[in-house]
Design a protein that fits this description.
With 196 residues, this protein is an alpha/beta fold. 37% of the residues lie in helices and 22% in strands. The chain has seven helices and seven strands; from the N terminus they run βαβααβαβββααβα. The protein has a five-stranded parallel sheet with strand order 2-1-3-6-7, with helices on both faces. A two-stranded antiparallel ribbon has the order 4-5. Strand 1, helix 1 and strand 2 form a beta-alpha-beta unit. Helix 1 runs parallel beside helix 7. It is globular. The N and C termini lie close together (9 Å).
Length: 196
């Protein structure tokens, strides 16, 4: 499979970056074609331009500034996101990537008459998320409602193929994590990714 791994963390010595490297390495060992997209290292500009926003509902979204990212999204078989949750949400650079690249004519089509959107990434057969939260799972899920998971699994994943395989792996309570808990999570990630 041709699998894009979209990573978003400003530090290359971070735990999240180590997870990104583990995913890319494991996929490569499995014989997959890997497209490693490191948004911070690529200096991805997250702010949507005025012309992009004006064109969003016009029927011809102006994706010229992100055309290379859009082209990648159109030709992959799978995608794995690797990022931390900050304030129960994805980092701003990743949100900008979603806003600008997962746009109309790329990830979906508008159906103005029906008042809905129609998925366009039906060729994508794998959708994965590897993430971390500073809070414990019960704070994230029970108190906050896990908004980040909902965005990924209820908004982005449905833009893919109807029977897309998916996984969501999260290391909770990072603020109190240990070397052992972090290593165990890396091994869990490797095990899941090696079965793709």
């Amino acid at each position: 499979m041709r699998i894009q791994v979209v990573h978003c963390h400003p530090l290359t010595d971070s735990y999240n970056h180590a997870l990104f490297q583990a995913i890319v390495t494991t996929l490569g060992r499995g014989g997959h074609e890997v497209i490693a997209t490191d948004l911070y290292r690529e200096a991805f500009a997250p702010a949507m331009s005025p012309q992009e926003r004006r064109s969003y509902h016009s029927g011809a979204y102006d994706d010229a500034a992100v055309s290379a990212y859009a082209a990648t999204l159109r030709r992959i078989d799978g995608i794995i996101f690797c990022f931390p949750h900050w304030w129960f949400s994805m980092p701003a650079v990743l949100k900008g990537y979603v806003d600008r690249v997962w746009g109309p004519g790329i990830a979906f089509e508008h159906d103005p008459a029906g008042g809905r959107i129609v998925p366009s990434l039906t060729h994508v057969r794998l959708f994965g998320v590897v993430t971390s939260y500073g809070s414990p799972w019960w704070v994230t899920r029970l108190l906050a409602g896990d908004p980040g998971r909902k965005v990924m699994m209820r908004a982005l994943k449905p833009m893919c193929g109807k029977h897309v395989r998916s996984f969501y792996l999260a290391h909770y309570d990072m603020d109190r994590s240990t070397a052992a808990s972090r290593q165990a999570f890396v091994e869990r990630v490797r095990a899941v990714v090696s079965r793709i």
